[in-house]
């Protein structure tokens, strides 16, 4: 990523003795002179954070880099982020995350924990996660919001390398999203699929053969005011709903990731705190 | 016949009578007013005939609300205290994929709680439908698996009736469909028997999307 500024931090001790990739990062923000600035930063193993230069008024932008190049069975990645009181933080990924073929009985795990303190905001904007045939991925995203915190989540998912004609005839995928506000469950979503995912996704009322999907959540007092404009951008295979006050959920399907981006990117631009993270534009 | 066996049989008959009453279309919960997003799926052309309706119901039962409702019934049934039931209710509400799904579970649950609470003198206030039903069955000592199984059949039957208002599906065709789909109900109830809410999950994506799109459907006869 040519515009990235790599923070000059020492790497963790070499973990190459481990047979599988391990990676762990933590980033947090605090307020200084009315702006959001980096507070804590830790990185270990095959996860790194890059911090591209952003406008002085923009929130710190943390770009996750998986130096292992993807996730396979037995890998474990942990990501944690915290927006301190009154501050904003954007998290994204440098590239699409690839879930590679896993050895039988092995599962790659990604655990993400975010917390947003009073008056704060996190935009969680990873690029696509691509499930390869034979992959076994278990993800969990856990978010704790203060009562008046804001949160934007965009999770695009791609079912196989469709451009190569790959179908997911054998894969396992688990994805759990838990959002709590003031300690109380606010939004839960869980996907569990195993076996012939292509056959399952081909069913008319599952995904009707879609190759890509997005789950989006926007928690903010102004969510309701954005609903009509969001709906106007959606194709027939997507829907948005203000499930309860200040909680807007969207799910959408597309034939492939390219067609998904055609309507998703403008939508993220309209909802994100700052201009679209640069990695998304490549 | 030993007295014990006779008592057990009597209890089972009594239990079935109560469940038949609660899950009858005549029980005033207003379920007939909700299509669970089917109306939007029909409007979009995703469901256009009896075969399509059966496919839609099968996906909803096995991969969406059916299985999740059965899990919630089991969890609420197994809960020992009202506090635990309230936590299950909070989880159920957070798991709603759309506003209309939450409305449907909330309103039917409220109506079920009002009527059942008045007649059986139980406190079921403020619970979404599957949680209220599971709790009520526990308080009345009704069998858990039978409660979940008959709920799934009643849910299916109600949505076939909704489908018959939207599509050319005849009475005999509808009942034949219900007979086939009823075969899924005991299996789903058995699979969800432990009521482990970490197993709540849905892949019935397009049924959820249809339920979201129903909110802005111009011409509609159902509330959801």
UniProtKB/TrEMBL annotation, chain B:
<keyword id="KW-0996">Nickel insertion</keyword>
<keyword id="KW-0143">Chaperone</keyword>
<comment type="similarity">
    <text>Belongs to the UreF family.</text>
</comment>
<dbReference type="GO" id="GO:0005737">
    <property type="term" value="C:cytoplasm"/>
</dbReference>
<comment type="function">
    <text>Required for maturation of urease via the functional incorporation of the urease nickel metallocenter.</text>
</comment>
<keyword id="KW-0963">Cytoplasm</keyword>
<dbReference type="GO" id="GO:0016151">
    <property type="term" value="F:nickel cation binding"/>
</dbReference>
<comment type="subunit">
    <text>UreD, UreF and UreG form a complex that acts as a GTP-hydrolysis-dependent molecular chaperone, activating the urease apoprotein by helping to assemble the nickel containing metallocenter of UreC. The UreE protein probably delivers the nickel.</text>
</comment>
<dbReference type="InterPro" id="IPR002639">
    <property type="entry name" value="UreF"/>
</dbReference>
<dbReference type="InterPro" id="IPR038277">
    <property type="entry name" value="UreF_sf"/>
</dbReference>
<protein>
    <recommendedName>
        <fullName>Urease accessory protein UreF</fullName>
    </recommendedName>
</protein>
<dbReference type="Pfam" id="PF01730">
    <property type="entry name" value="UreF"/>
</dbReference>
């Amino acid at each position: 990523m040519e515009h990235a500024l790599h923070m000059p931090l020492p790497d963790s001790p070499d973990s190459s003795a481990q047979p599988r990739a391990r990676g762990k990062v933590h980033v947090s923000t605090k307020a200084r002179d009315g702006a959001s600035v980096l507070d804590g930063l830790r990185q270990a193993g095959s996860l790194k954070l890059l911090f591209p230069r952003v406008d002085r008024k923009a929130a710190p932008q943390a770009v996750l880099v998986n130096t292992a190049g993807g996730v396979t069975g037995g890998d474990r990645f942990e990501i944690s982020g915290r927006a301190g009181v009154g501050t904003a933080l954007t998290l994204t990924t440098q590239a699409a995350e690839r879930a590679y073929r896993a050895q039988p009985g092995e599962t790659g795990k990604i655990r993400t924990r975010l917390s947003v303190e009073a008056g704060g905001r996190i935009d969680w904007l990873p690029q696509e996660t691509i499930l390869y045939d034979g992959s076994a991925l278990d993800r969990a995203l856990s978010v704790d919001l203060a009562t008046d915190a804001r949160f934007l989540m965009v999770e695009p998912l791609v079912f196989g390398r469709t451009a190569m004609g790959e179908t997911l005839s054998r894969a396992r995928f688990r994805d759990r999203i838990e959002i709590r506000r003031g300690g109380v469950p606010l939004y839960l979503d869980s996907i569990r699929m195993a076996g012939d995912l292509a056959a399952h996704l081909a069913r008319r009322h599952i995904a009707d053969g879609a190759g890509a999907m997005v789950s989006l959540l926007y928690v903010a007092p102004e969510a309701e005011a954005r609903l009509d404009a969001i709906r106007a951008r959606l194709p027939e295979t997507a829907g948005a709903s203000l499930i309860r006050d200040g909680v807007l959920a969207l799910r959408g399907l597309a034939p492939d990731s390219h067609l998904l981006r055609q309507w998703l990117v403008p939508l993220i631009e309209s909802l994100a705190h700052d201009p679209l993270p640069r990695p998304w534009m490549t | 016949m030993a007295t014990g066996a006779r008592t057990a049989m009597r209890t089972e008959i009594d239990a079935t009578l109560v469940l038949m009453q609660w899950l009858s279309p005549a029980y005033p919960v207003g379920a007939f007013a909700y299509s669970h997003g089917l109306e939007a799926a029909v409007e979009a052309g995703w469901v256009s005939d009896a075969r399509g309706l059966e496919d839609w119901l099968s996906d909803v039962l096995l991969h969406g609300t059916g299985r999740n409702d059965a899990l919630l019934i089991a969890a609420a049934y197994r809960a020992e205290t009202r506090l635990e039931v309230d936590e299950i209710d909070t989880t159920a509400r957070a798991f709603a994929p759309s506003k209309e799904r939450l409305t449907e579970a909330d309103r039917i649950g409220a109506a079920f709680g009002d009527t059942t609470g008045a007649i059986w003198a139980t406190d079921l206030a403020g619970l979404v439908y599957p949680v209220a039903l599971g709790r009520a069955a526990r308080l009345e000592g009704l069998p858990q698996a039978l409660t979940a199984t008959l709920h799934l059949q009643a849910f299916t039957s109600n949505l076939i009736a909704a489908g018959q208002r939207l599509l050319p599906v005849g009475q005999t065709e509808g009942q034949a469909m219900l007979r086939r789909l009823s075969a899924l109900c005991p299996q789903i109830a058995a699979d969800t028997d432990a009521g482990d809410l970490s197993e709540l999950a849905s892949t019935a994506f397009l049924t959820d999307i249809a339920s979201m799109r129903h909110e802005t459907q111009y011409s509609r006869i159902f509330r959801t």
